[in-house]
Amino acid sequence: MTEKTVSEIVARCEALYEDLNFTAAREWKEAEPGRKVIGYLPVYVPRELIHAAGMLPLGIMGGGDNLEVIHGDAYYQSYICRIPRSTIELGVSGRVDFVDGMLFPSICDVIRNLSGMWKMLFPDVYSKYFDVPQTYKDEIGGVFYTGEMRELLSDLEKMAGRKITDDDIRHSIKVYNENRRLVNELYTFRSEKPWQAPASEAYLVIRAGLVLPVEEHSKLLRQYIDAAMAEERPIKDNSKVVVTGMFCEQPPLNLIKSLELSGCYVVDDDFMLVSRWLIGDVPTDGDPVHNLSQAFLHHSMSTAAKYEPDEKEKGQFLVRTVKNTGAEGVIFAATSFCDPALLDRPMLQNILSDANIPYIAFKYAENSGQMQPIREQAGTFVDSIKLWSAA
Amino acid sequence: MRPSVVKAKPADALKDASMIKQKEMMANHYNRLTSSQENGEKVASTFVPGNLNELIMCFDLVNNLPEVNAIQSGLRKQSGAYIMEAERSGHSEDVCTYVKSDLGMMMKGNIGPNGKELPKPDVLLLSYTGCFTFLKWFELLREQYKCPTIFLQTPYMADGKVTPNMIQYMVKQLKEDVIPTLEEVSGVKFDIDRLREYLGKSAKAEDDLVYILQSGKNKPSPIDAYFGGIYYIGPIFGAFRGTDDAIDYYRFLREEVDQRMLKGLGPVTPDGPMGEEKYRLVVEGPPNYTSFRQFWKMFYEEGATVVASSYTKVGGTYDYGFRHDPDRPLETLAEYCLGVYTNRSLPMRIDMLTDYINEYEADGLLINSIKSCNSFSAGQLLIMREVEKRTGKPAAFIETDLVDPRYFSAANVKNRLESYFQMVEQKRSGKGVAA
Ligand code: SF4
Ligand code: SF4
Description:
heterodimer; A: 391 residues; alpha/beta; four-stranded parallel sheet; globular; B: alpha/beta; 16 helices; 11% strand
């Protein structure tokens, strides 16, 4: 196999990102009779279980800024975020007509209600609201979560027409562990040498993992990291920042590019949390469902949709990310009308202030076109960071 | 200390006994809250949909409901200033205005409707059903009050059913987290028989509440199940479920409703008894509180009565058969939380509204969509079309906010309502509907 260059790899990922007909997933499905595809929305589902059923988990992150929403607006008032309407658009326009099931994770009222709308609009498609615990004791939240996962497994078994064994799940855990290790490797590499792996590239490479089979995506990650390490790129006088915002609705690619153009090195973000929600490897011995549950309860990321039981821990996840990546500031980017992200933000800002970490905040929508204000705001932020650190 | 029983006799004036009683109950409750510190009483803040009043009373805690405080601020036209205050301090204009009204009120001295300062809660009972915003709301309050916060998660009824996994999860949380922490905070040992006693009282009042709400099936309806309904649900959704006060209140109210039915009278409005009932409506969504009277007037002036509403089910879907059951004290609390309206899936909500239109022989559905409430609002346009399709009755959509006066445009709402009433007329005369 000839080695691919960074630009070839990124071009492929960009093509996957722009393809709102999900051709890659369609082709995967058509390659063998009986294959099934299960769509899921942000921010997290245990993709291992879908994989263990021999199915393709397909991340559906809304329609982005390239989708013309024709029908979706008839389903939502103007004061509701974009992602549900563009997701409905994908549905009613037939772009996801090959998807056999849809999972709606428990993150907010909008996605929650969308799960019911999907049932009404597409009664022949399996659709499930995937509830997760907000309490983290093994005997309480843990038991509930294993129960929910077993329910999902039994639904998947019915669809697959076969039993899903513990070994199947263990194997899938192994495959996803590998994928998460690579994603984390890319994040570490980027935080150390952000000029070698720009955030907009890393975004596309990780996003490809939402539509490709995980094994193929892991190869792609390896290729990208190797190619990006090998390619010499000029170091710029940029400031390192962490971008945070819950990111259910995704930022337009242009937004990430604009931040870079205005002098930011984005060294960490929570764009597609599903790719690295679980921290560290999930054990592959013992009861695999229990292991997934343990990882969720005790070794998972933080986001606005998740309750923080310990007041002292509130926001510390973000503070640690800033420290670990050597970032000099935080950019809060929240989706307009997103209650979880916008209500969480003032608390996180207070914690950053206490920790003397500078920040700025703005709102966006997946189809935001006008980047000038964001570019200016980020540019000013970078200048002031430089002034502070020089002082 | 157990709450004292307020003495209002039905003899006061038959038609007003329930109103007098409710006024007294509310005034006493706010006085109890604002003097809790002097009286050595501890306060638990919690939410209406997951309100576990019977349990709270078992620990001698006084129940403080920030949502009800926000409603009070809305009715008193103070919420607008509170919301602006919260926005000035960094809260987004996009988020739930109940939260901002509450936070703004706190920033401005936390003055309750009786003009006295509301107490700091000793515990935040984050009973979380039907709305994700609750979770953030109490994280925000915890940040300010630094008091213990108890989390009780209610799984969502996404598939239209309650599973054993859901009940077990909730009962375990109650046993292992909620009750031990309440014991710790209050210093009172949990007594399950006391809980049973309160639950039995709840069920009694709930029977009467259902009778009252279902009187809307009568023609004319003796009640307005939305504007009037908001008063009727007050005690049972708030700090009185499980008390003798609530039993008395609902008994008085039931007697009054019976009287009105006997006499063939419609609801009582702020301008006196309602005239001829011309339109019978089912309403989905919360009301606007900042222009509550003006909003209501737009209905009764046109002879429109709301015969059933979904908002009066946010604190329990008693008309669907649920009653608090003293024989299964913890399970019943779990089932209560699971069943509240906003914890029901969208298809369940559609079924409910469709049933209401059919059973209450309504002329159609009106949705009051609340700008800042995703829990209710996301999906309402589909609900509207689906209910319209199933019932063949016209539906209409208006947009306001709960407590943010900036989003209540009286002229727009009035126009929309007037054309809706015309639609209903056209439909009746068989001329078809021009939406
Ligand atoms: S953007 Fe926010 S409000 Fe909208 S669906 Fe996502 S989490 Fe919910
Ligand atoms: S979003 Fe709606 S249900 Fe939730 S707290 Fe606000 S008003 Fe209440």
